[in-house]
Design a protein that fits this description.
Blueprint (H helix, E strand, L loop, with lengths): L4 E14 L2 E14 L3 E6 L5 H8 L7 E6 L2 E2 L5 H11 E4 L11 H11 L4 H14 L15 H13 L5 E5 L7 H18 L2 E5 L3 H4 L4 E6 L2 E4 L1
Parallel strand pairs: 3-8, 3-9, 6-7, 7-8
Antiparallel strand pairs: 1-2, 1-4, 4-5, 9-10
Bound molecules: adenosine-5'-triphosphate and magnesium ion.
């Protein structure tokens, strides 16, 4: 039986216009992520990892090539539908947490649920559970500026999970965390992958963590090298 592909990119290229001219950042990337798979992406700074992750998660569009999510070509999808689709299907954990500074931890976490029109009490109950699992029960009324870097990142993880996404794309999720907290966060990812079948694509410089993925892909200068 063929495995279900959750995300598929075919011949994806991305270039940016800069003052110095056209900068080609992704140079023809073809990659499939299977449903329920945990894939690590490694590679030097500037290799194009974040750019690829944004395109796989439909936050950005390729210059050429195609991205499919569960078989659906995202090129023809307008921005509003794309935003709804991301809200319902994909959780993002960014290299920098992107929490809203004027809202507290709980408010940041429930936000995607409220945007989707869910009832406050239901979303709040789930958010309490997630924040508890992440060791943040005593910090739910703190604003991002009143949290440590690691705590901010864990709030961002809870926010990424609140809509029960089918895929989580994470960019250096443990970059700001000490080893112990980083391992705990990864344990949670592995647990969510096993219990709920959520697919993960994780950019990380941490070999101990990438070794726990089902598969690791290396990027070099805008291309993939399977390793
Ligand atoms: N919007 C943009 N405009 C112009 N150049 C960009 C843009 N975004 C990224 N780049 C360039 O593309 C290259 C790849 O960037 P990207 O952020 O994908 O790298 P990365 O592999 O994630 O690196 P790091 O490990 O440092 O996060 C870099 O050289 C960067 O300067
Ligand atoms: Mg990056």
């Amino acid at each position: 039986m063929a495995m279900n592909k959750i995300i598929e990119a075919k011949d994806v290229a991305k270039s940016f216009r800069t003052e110095a001219g056209e900068l080609q950042v992704l140079k023809g990337i073809t990659i499939s992520i299977n449903a329920g798979e945990m894939v690590g992406i490694i590679g030097a700074s500037g290799a194009g990892k974040s750019t690829l992750l944004h395109i796989l998660g439909a936050l950005d569009r390729p210059t050429s090539g195609t991205v499919f999510f569960e078989g659906r070509d995202l090129a023809g999808v307008d921005e509003n539908s794309l935003a709804r689709f991301r809200n319902a299907s994909i959780g993002f954990v960014f290299q920098f947490h992107h929490l809203l500074p004027e809202f507290n931890a709980m408010e940041n976490v429930v936000m995607p649920g409220l945007v989707a029109g869910r009832r406050y009490h239901e979303v709040e109950r789930e958010a309490l559970g997630l924040l508890g699992e992440l060791g943040l029960s005593a910090r739910i009324r703190h604003r991002p500026g009143e949290l440590s870097g690691g705590e901010q990142q864990r709030v961002a993880v809870a926010r990424a999970l609140i809509q029960s996404p089918r895929a989580v794309l994470a960019d250096e999720p443990t970059g700001n965390l000490d080893t112990l907290t980083g391992n705990d966060l990864f344990d949670l990812f592995v647990d969510l992958n096993k219990k709920r079948g959520i697919s993960f694509v994780i950019v990380t410089h941490n070999k101990t963590l990438s070794d726990r993925c089902h598969r690791v892909i290396e990027m070099t200068d805008g291309r993939l090298a399977a390793s």
